[in-house]
Specification:
The complex is a heterotrimer of chains A (about 160), B (about 375) and C (about 160).
Chain A (H helix, E strand, L loop, with lengths): L1 E2 L10 E13 L1 H14 L2 E5 L6 E2 L15 E5 L3 E9 L12 E8 L5 E6 L12 E6 L10 E6 L2
Antiparallel strand pairs in A: 3-4, 3-5, 6-7, 6-9, 7-8, 9-10
Chain B lengths: L4 E8 L11 H16 L8 E5 L11 H7 L6 E5 L5 H14 L6 E8 L4 H4 L18 H16 L3 H15 L13 H5 L3 E3 L2 E2 L8 E10 H7 L4 E9 L2 H8 L6 H12 L4 H4 L2 E3 L5 H10 L8 H6 L26 H14 L13 E8 L3 E8 L3
Parallel strand pairs in B: 2-3, 2-4, 9-10
Antiparallel strand pairs in B: 1-7, 1-8, 4-7, 5-6, 8-11, 10-11
Helix pairs in contact in B: 1-2, 3-14, 6-12
Chain C lengths: L1 E2 L9 E13 L4 H8 L4 E4 L6 E2 L15 E4 L3 E8 L5 E2 L6 E2 L5 E6 L4 E5 L13 E6 L12 E6 L3
Antiparallel strand pairs in C: 1-2, 3-4, 3-5, 6-9, 6-11, 7-8, 9-10, 11-12
Classes of the chains: A mainly beta (about 160), B alpha/beta (about 375), C mainly beta (about 160).
């Protein structure tokens, strides 16, 4: 019964596969507190490390440098400076906005880390590193980082 | 010449079905804090980190980005490993390899799984199946072990009741382990009347989905002796990943466990495993698998393990102390599960397992990791150097 | 992105539904898929040990030699295991949760290789290890070069 079976094609076959996933991501107690302050009080909060005194925004439970639990919450004004940015001009599935749009890293006054977010109410060609920014909150807030609609230039 | 290596600290979370109060990274930090405290070390003492993640089972992609800062390990040497169910096993094996080079003073082995974030996607959706070869059929760990158990019953002559005995024994052990997830107070009757998933697998026979993390700190001999007066020596380790090919060819009930154990027993000079190994933490994803694995590790002849349960010989304080922690049907943070086996085996060797401690001196303990269609990782621990 | 909250939850969680398309090259195994389209089950054979394996492989996993020989595994095989899935499970084709009436069988083919499939006999008490089964194929125009081109395996009288 053994053959090389030349009558069956060796034509390469590509198998089309679609992987469906539906992951649920926990923000944990720390992330939940951060998001609820934004949702309920339009406040941006950070956590201060008892070891090195750095303020982390967004907050995390442990200081990455000292590996100690951070428990001291610090309220920030929300104002800050742009440390880096880019303008997205291409489209992919699952993008949160229609291109073109700009996002950047914002260092909040009183914080030692950067928060990534969208930039709005700004001419995409006139964004400058170091420019002053402030958050614009959505009317309807649901407990998400996107409850901050974007950061806009502030005077 | 490789350095002799020892485990100087172990830590694990209390395992639960859901942990919405922590992120995956924060869950990991709990295990790392526990392992560092156990070793009386700080993160400053660690010079290499190995992360083990079965990414598809918790959807936490590129996890080092999140976890390394959360455990305060920024700037340390490190990498991430994944290998389905044996992920924790290869993470441990890689950590052992690194420590044995003598290039690192203390290697942190960390694995986790937060299955509450992906349970629906993974456990019933054929998450482990190759999309092309078996993807057309609704394959999952449940159907895989139903098929194995069908053939085991067919070949061994055991009954469903014997498989229920295995599950009850696992639960009796888990009831004594405060870290175990399912502590149910089961009886044979309860198991026999449980929901049938795919004959002969009932819901209780299958490992649960778990959120949990575990960590182990491994040092070369000189450092280990300075750190602790209770080092657990890692005598040997071996990974065998020819599962799909090796197991399905002739025997639908087999895994690579026998082959992998033979390699390690030979190198360690073990001729009578039941006598020379006093504690067993063997990764059994379903209760009937425990029967076959007991045969494959050399405790008894093929297709006879069920008789040992019938005779009441298996349990923490019995002749065969198999999976005293309650095993994987009680607790299964899947990619982390082999590290949980390693933590439990190390505690047994130290005599620190608490209520589920096996009585008497534990000179050797065997921990394993299982994955996919029969892949295995073997980790042999010893009390004396 | 939307919060997963029918009522206010203590801890915020986010659900991320995604559909990710892949194109997997079957490579040397393409011959197997092309065989299915013609109603034939092919396996590679090791020149050293004579084992036939499905999935077919370019190299024998045991002997690390090239497997240039393809063997037609025939249309019949022996039942290795059979059970029903008694809980709703995702259909891998549609990803819809559904019930499954048909037993899942492992079949050892006449040519020596094994594969999975469905069984036409719905009463599992009538299915015995070692019984002879025969492949029932989808109509040729419906075949896609996949394992489920075989509609089911049907018990045959001996």
């Amino acid at each position: 019964m053994s053959h090389h079976l030349p009558e069956i094609s060796d034509e390469p076959v590509i198998a089309e596969v679609i992987a469906h996933t539906n992951f649920l991501v926990s923000t944990g107690a720390t992330g939940t507190r951060f998001l609820k302050e934004i949702r309920d009080n339009k406040k941006i909060m950070g956590l201060k490390c008892p070891g090195c005194s750095k303020v982390h925004v967004p907050p995390r439970l442990h200081c990455p440098t000292c590996f100690v639990k951070m428990t001291e919450w610090v309220e920030l004004s929300g104002k800050g400076s742009l440390t880096s940015y880019t303008v997205v001009r291409y489209q992919e599935p699952y993008m949160p906005k229609e291109p073109p749009y700009a996002y950047g890293v914002i260092q909040m006054d009183g914080a030692d880390t950067g928060l990534a977010h969208f930039l709005g109410e700004v001419d995409l060609d006139k964004i400058k590193i170091g420019m002053r920014l402030e958050p614009v909150f959505k009317e309807e807030r649901e407990g998400s980082i996107l409850d901050i609609d974007y950061f806009k230039p502030s005077s | 010449m490789a350095e002799r290596i020892a485990i100087v600290g172990v830590g694990q979370t209390i395992h639960k079905s859901r942990r919405p109060d922590v992120t995956t990274a924060e869950l990991c930090a709990e295990a790392v804090e526990a392992a560092l405290a156990d070793a009386q070390m700080t993160m400053k003492d660690i010079d290499h980190v190995v992360l083990g993640s079965f990414e598809v089972a918790d959807g936490y992609f590129n996890p080092d980005k999140w976890i390394i800062p959360e455990i305060g390990a920024v700037g340390k040497a490190g990498f991430e490993i994944q290998n389905v169910g044996t992920t924790g096993g290869v993470t441990a094996a890689a950590s052992f390899n690194l420590a044995a080079t003598g290039m690192f003073d203390a290697v942190l082995c960390l694995a986790w799984q937060k299955m509450d974030e992906a349970a629906g996607a993974f456990s019933r959706g054929g998450g482990g199946a190759n999309e092309y070869w078996m993807g057309q059929f609704p394959m999952s760990p449940i159907t895989n072990f139903a098929r194995r158990a069908y053939s085991y019953i067919d070949r061994s002559g055991c009954t469903e009741e014997h498989i229920a005995m295995v599950r009850v024994k696992q639960d009796q052990c888990a009831m004594k382990n405060p870290c175990a997830q399912l502590r149910l107070g089961l009886t044979i009757e309860k198991v026999m009347n449980d929901v049938l998933l795919a004959w002969p697998i009932r819901r209780l026979h299958m490992c649960p989905t778990t959120a949990g993390a575990a960590a182990v700190i491994v040092c070369p001999e000189a450092r280990a002796k300075k750190v602790t007066d209770k080092p657990v020596w890692v005598e040997d380790w071996f990974t065998c990943h020819q599962g799909g090919a090796l197991t399905m060819a002739e025997d639908p009930t087999a895994s690579t466990l026998r082959y992998a154990c033979d390699v390690v027993y030979k190198r360690c000079g073990i001729t009578n495993p039941l006598k020379e190994i006093q504690a067993w933490e063997v990764y059994e994803p379903a209760s009937p698998a425990e029967l076959r694995w007991m045969e494959e590790v050399g405790i008894c002849d093929d297709y006879t393990a069920w008789k040992l349960f019938e005779q009441g010989k298996v349990g923490i304080d019995k002749e065969i102390p198999f999976n005293p922690s309650g095993g994987v049907t009680a607790t299964n943070p899947i990619g982390c599960t082999p590290v949980v086996r390693l933590v439990e085996a190390a505690l047994q060797v130290r005599g620190d397992a608490g209520e589920h401690q096996i009585p008497g001196k534990i000179e050797r303990a065997l921990a394993t990791g299982y994955g996919g269609q029969g892949e295995n990782v073997i980790m042999m621990l010893r009390k004396t150097a | 992105m939307s919060t997963d909250q029918k009522q206010e939850q203590e801890f915020i969680q986010f659900r991320y539904p995604r559909q990710v398309p892949y194109q997997h090259s079957l490579g040397y195994q393409s011959k197997f898929a092309n065989g299915l389209k013609q109603g034939r089950i092919l396996a590679t054979k090791c020149p050293v040990c004579g084992r036939c394996t499905i999935p077919p492989r370019i190299v024998c996993p045991f002997h690390h030699v090239k497997q240039t020989e393809w063997v037609d595994q025939g249309q019949r095989g022996r039942l290795v295991s059979a059970f029903k899935i008694n809980f709703p499970m995702f259909d891998p084709r549609t990803r819809e949760l559904q019930s499954w009436e048909t037993p899942l069988v492992a079949v050892e083919l006449e040519g020596g290789a094994s594969m999975d499939g469905w069984c036409s006999e719905l009463d599992t008490s009538k299915l015995k290890t070692g019984m002879l089964l025969e492949a029932v194929w989808r109509p040729e125009e419906e075949r896609q070069g996949r394992g489920d081109d075989i509609l089911h395996w049907k018990p045959v009288e001996e």
